[in-house]
Amino acid sequence: MRRAYFYALLALCLFAMSLLLPALETSFLGAPVVLSGWRTAFYGISAAGESFQALVGGGDRISWKFILAGLSATFNVVFFLSPMVVRNLHSSRVRLAAVGVCSGVGFALGVFTSFAFADMKIMLQPGYYLWLLGYVVNVYAVFLALYESLRSD
């Protein structure tokens, strides 16, 4: 469990660094605008909320791209859960597997979101790739803990 906990903490550190680094670059009124990771996550969640309200209310401002972005930003919670679940020696295998699957889904949503916004002239910056790398390390940490749990029995 020690190595798995180390990797879970490493994933949390990668996530924290990705919040501070530039995550994407776009243009606003012809001028380039670079958004840091925390702003990108905030805008993703807020734009998804507007699109979800339009979906429920039957409006015409539904954007599945922004709903995808909001969901991928929502899965960031798994970075805080995985060190606790991996560190706890009494964590069930179901909890470990659930956190691992959530990490994988968050990674997949992040990759799909990057392709969904390809037509909007958005350039991804190092913070975005660091965020995706954090998901990969998190999946490895959780499944390493699951493997060690299975091996100890």
Write a concise synopsis of the structure shown.
With 153 residues, this protein is mainly alpha-helical.
Description of the structure:
The chain is mostly helical and about 150 residues long. It is about 75% helix and about 10% strand. The protein has helices spanning about 1-20, 35-55, 65-75, 80-85, 95-115, 125-150; strands at about 20-30, 30-35, 125. Strands 2-1-3 form a 3-stranded antiparallel β-sheet. A hairpin with a 2-residue loop joins strand 1 and strand 2. The radius of gyration is 17 Å and the shape is elongated. The two termini are about 15 Å apart.
Observed structural traits:
153 residues, mainly alpha, three-stranded antiparallel β-sheet, 6 helices, 3 strands
The major beta sheet can be summarized as: 3 strands, antiparallel
Identify the strand order in the major beta sheet.
2-1-3
The rounded distance between the terminal residues' Cα atoms is: 14 Å
Q: What is the radius of gyration?
A: 17 Å
Average pLDDT, rounded to a whole number, is: 80
**Class by SSE composition:** mainly alpha
Number of strands: 3
List the helices and strands in order.
HEEHHHHEH
- Low-pLDDT segments: none
The amount of beta strand, in percent, is 5-15%
Q: What oligomeric arrangement do these chains adopt?
A: single chain
Percent of residues in helices? over 70%
**What coarse outline follows from CA principal-axis ratios?**
elongated
Number of helices: 6
